[in-house]
């Protein structure tokens, strides 16, 4: 495996300085009595792993450039954009370069450093963009489970995508405190907002609200369903237990882990420290006690995801989840 590219290691740069972009969909939305298609577009910061989701009316160049302008207005101008060779991305690159070439030489000199560099991955090589393709897979899988073939109002779908953005940006990346006994995880939302994840109190609505006329409740039910489907499909893959033919690395006392709890409200990622382990008759650890703040839980190891260890002498480095 090759070393990480420079775009993954832009230290001391703002979020979305190096950004990966991809589209997904389509989704059916209701416009009056007719149905139309909409697509989602995902922007991912390659260094801080922050996400930005938006809705596209079409997959053409104009729709991409409109979304890019909205993205820049809210997140700031990226230094470089990495994407595939879709006609909307290549067309947007050509459009921006053509507009720049039509400026006066004085403006070109002043704005030369403001240009966005488009870096296209090779054709038929989606693994070159695995960083953002992995996020696209997570979003698409969960949205297909909850939406299936149903069509929703456009405002509901747009709200759902922003709710999904908040859920994904609340995933723990590393530690704030240098004390490993105080696992207080840093999240992409902290890097974006500079504060704890601030969200409205969760209100649980019945699934019957999907058939009602209250679009607000409809969007909240869909967001709850996304959270349920997401943690069932995404979190188990972080454990790396595809094969059971050999022993993996067991949990150790003092290790920081992420708990899987399907009963918690959405966007809550409990992180705790292993205080005690229990081995079975075969001397393999099957159960562990985990301390989360001032409470202790007994959980099986299949519900615990080890977080990356903090290396000695590297207190200021934040290790992210793979």
Structure overview:
With 322 residues, the chain is α+β, with helices and mostly antiparallel strands. It has seven helices and 13 strands. It folds into two domains: 226 residues, Ribonuclease H-like superfamily/Ribonuclease H (Nucleotidyltransferase, domain 5); 58 residues, Roll (SH3 type barrels). The protein is 30% helix and 24% strand. The radius of gyration is 22 Å and the shape is globular. Pfam families: DUF5641.
SSE-based structural type = alpha+beta
Binned strand content: 15-25%
Quote the distance from N terminus to C terminus. Answer: 15 Å
Order of helices and strands: EEEHEHHEHEHEEHHEEEEE
What is the number of helical segments per DSSP (H or I, 4+ residues)? 7
Structurally, the number of domains stands at 2
């Amino acid at each position: 495996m090759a070393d990480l590219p420079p775009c993954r290691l832009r230290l001391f740069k703002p979020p979305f300085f190096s950004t990966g972009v991809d589209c997904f969909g389509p989704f059916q939305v209701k416009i009056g009595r007719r149905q139309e298609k909409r697509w989602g577009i995902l922007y991912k910061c390659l260094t801080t792993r922050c996400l930005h989701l938006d809705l596209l009316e079409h997959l053409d160049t104009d729709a991409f450039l409109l979304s890019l302008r909205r993205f820049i207005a809210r997140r700031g101008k990226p230094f470089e954009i990495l994407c595939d060779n879709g006609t909307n991305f290549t067309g947007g690159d050509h459009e921006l370069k053509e507009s720049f070439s039509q400026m006066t030489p004085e403006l070109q000199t002043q704005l030369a450093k403001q240009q966005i560099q488009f870096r296209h991955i090779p054709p038929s090589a989606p693994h070159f963009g695995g960083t953002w393709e992995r996020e696209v897979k997570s979003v698409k899988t969960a949205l297909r489970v909850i939406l299936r073939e149903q069509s929703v109002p456009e405002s509901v779908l747009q709200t759902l995508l922003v709710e999904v953005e908040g859920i994904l940006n609340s995933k723990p990346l590393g530690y704030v405190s240098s004390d490993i006994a105080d696992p207080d995880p840093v999240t992409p939302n902290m890097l974006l907002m500079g504060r704890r994840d601030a969200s409205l109190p969760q209100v649980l609505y019945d699934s019957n609200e999907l058939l009602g006329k209250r679009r607000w409740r409809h969007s909240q039910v869909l967001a709850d369903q996304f959270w349920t489907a997401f943690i069932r499909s995404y979190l188990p893959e972080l454990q790396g237990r595809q094969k059971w033919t050999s022993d993996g690395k067991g949990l150790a006392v003092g290790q920081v882990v992420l708990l899987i709890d399907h009963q918690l409200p959405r966007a809550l990622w409990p992180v705790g420290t292993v205080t005690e382990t229990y081995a079975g008759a075969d001397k393999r650890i099957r159960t562990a006690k985990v301390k989360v703040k001032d409470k202790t839980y007994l959980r099986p190891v299949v519900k615990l995801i080890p977080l990356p260890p903090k290396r000695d002498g590297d207190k200021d480095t934040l290790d992210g989840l793979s």
